[in-house]
Every structure is written in C-alpha cells, then in structure tokens.
Amino acid sequence: MIKFCSKCIMPNSRPRIQFNKKQVCNACSNSEKKSKINWQNRKKEFSFLVDKIKEFSKKNSLEYDCIVPWSGGKDSSSIALKLKLDYGLNPLLVTFSPLIMNVVGQDNRIELQKIGFDNIFISPNQKVARLLARRFFIERGNPKVAWDAGVNSSPMRVAIQYKIPYIFYAEHGESEYGGLVLNEESLKKRDLREVIEHQIGDYPENWISKEIEKKDLYNYIYPSDKEINQLGVTAYYYSYFFKWSMLENYNYVKEKMPSFKENITGRTKGTFTDFDSLDDKIDCLYYYMQFIKFGFGRATRDSCRMIQNNQMTREKAIQLARRYDNEFPIDNFKEVLDYLSLKDDQFEEIVDKHRNNEIWKQHKNRWELNFKI
Questions:
Q1: I need a surface site. Which of 13, 155, 226, 317 has the fewest CB within 10 A?
Q2: At 123, which CATH number?
Q3: Residue 289's domain spans which residues?
Q4: How many domains does the chain have?
Q5: β partners of residue 67
Q6: pLDDT of 81-94, one tens digit each?
C-alpha cells in the first residue's frame, strides 16, 4: 500500500526510505535533526580542515589544494566558488562527461572557468558509454548506471594521479533525501560500500561482455584500496559542514555568477524548476523512469527538498506534483532514442516492463496510478 510522508509528499515506494510511527520519512526526520546541529562548530571544524589542506599543499608544493567533482551545475559550482572565494583554496574541477551534452551545461562550465578554475574533463569511449546506457536502460530502467560509476571513480583517479588527497563532494544523498545510512562517519566521509550499494548497485568489472572488455571500463572502475590508502585520499561531503539547500546553492551561484544559465526552454519537463540537473539531455528520461518505477517524479523530488528547508508548503507541493510528475520527457526525446539505439515501440515496451504492478493499473488501454497524492 502506498503511503506518503506526513510532512513532505515522498511515498514509501522510494527505495530505502523509512517512515516512523508518525508517518514521517527519514529525510524529514534527518532534516529536523539538522536544526539541532551547531553549524558554527561545524564551520570551525571545516576551517581547521582547510588549514590542514593548505599546510599539506604548501609542504608538498601542490598546484591544487583539493578536487571538486563538478558538473557545471548549481550545487558543485557553489562548492567550487565557496572554496575559492571564501576559503582561499585552489580546487581542481573534475568533470565526467554527461551522456548527451547540452548548450546550457557547456556554457555554465565555461563561465565558471572564466572566474579562475582549471578543469579536467573526462570524455569516455562513446561506443562503450552508449552500449552501457542502452543496456542499463533495458535492464534497470536507468540509462545512467555506468555514468554514476564514472562520476564516482574519476575524481578518485585524478586525485591519485595528481597526488591530491582531498575531495569535496556535494551532499550525502542517503541522509538528505531518505535512504539507508550505513554509519555515522559516512555522513562526513564518502563510503565506497555505500556508493556501490546505493548509487551503482554493482561492480563495473561485472559489465564485461562480448562487446566490452575490462580495459574499456577503466573510467568506471574505482581505484584499488591500495592506491587510495597509499595517498590517503579522503572524500568529504560538503553538506556535513554546511546546511544543504539546492535553492540556496542556486541563489548563491547566481549572485556570484550572474551569467549562470537556466533551462533555455523555461521550466524543465517533469518539474516546476528551471535551474536543476541541466547539463545532460537524458536527465528528463532518467527522472521520468523514476516516476514509472516508483510512482513519484521530479516535481515530488524537488518539492520535498524545499519543504524540508521550509521553502514550500506541503499543500503547494501536492499541487505541483499532481501537475508535473507524469509529464513525458518530450524535449530532446528523438535524440535520446537515437543515443540509446531504440525505436519508439521498443522504448514503450521497455518502459512498460518497468512499471510496478503495485503502483500501476491499465484502464481502457491507458496506464493509471493506483493512488493519488
């Protein structure tokens, strides 16, 4: 039976989400806990870490102080800007290429670099990237599984190559949005087991096939423990030190970089925002498949995050979710189909295969949800 959080509107169909006796999801419970955190103490802790980083860089004559995994979007750009402008660090930005790049993402990356950043842009073998995207769209209803692996492994590989032991990721998704926290330390430092289990769901070494050899998967395979431990690479979550808010991140970037571009068509399909997840043309399909598999879409995702930061009421969120969650990702759809080497009828068959029978029912040759927000 589908139930909804009594504070936000996230359903219990979200993977790994948990509700308490008051029917409050763990994302909202964690949000309440954040209100009790002494953020000034966390800020001091971060300042001590920055001093440690600067001392290490000076001692080892490093060109860069740390690494920021960077898409060019508001969240990673806000971290890069704060590290540079507020704390005097010189971060190296590492980008794992979107599956299908768009103009907005490219322009925003260029504009941030103009402020004074170096960027390593990793573009993997496109034949392999497309094969993996197609495979995982068919198997899991998620074309970005391999991309998730690349986003996680590439900054670590660059850190080892450049001998930079400090990495700053954005938010800890499992605690921020409702999931399974493996241990308290993982709120602060990135845990490889958590990444594999919750983001990728598999080891890329298992993706070898007739068409793909192990050497083709280099950019997706995490470095060995030996390589990581020799340098002592530690990946931190910025959200541990500073309260996380996608809206505030956007406002900050827009203030520091007025040239930051939003969705050129206005509102992004499937939601009410125009400033989130803009760098990949396949993202709208990714979030649409979330709606197909779990019964909640991008508007629910965005509104819940804003409810938890007291930026939206639950009533408004319900209106927005009812209006936009089921919106088909028509923008760039033909290009996405071409990227996945699929025809329209094949696409529809794959989508229907991933519909959960507990969530969907057929009525007069149409699919309808079994519930309403």
A1: 226
A2: 3.40.50
A3: 267-369
A4: 2
A5: 92, 167
A6: 999 999 999 999 99
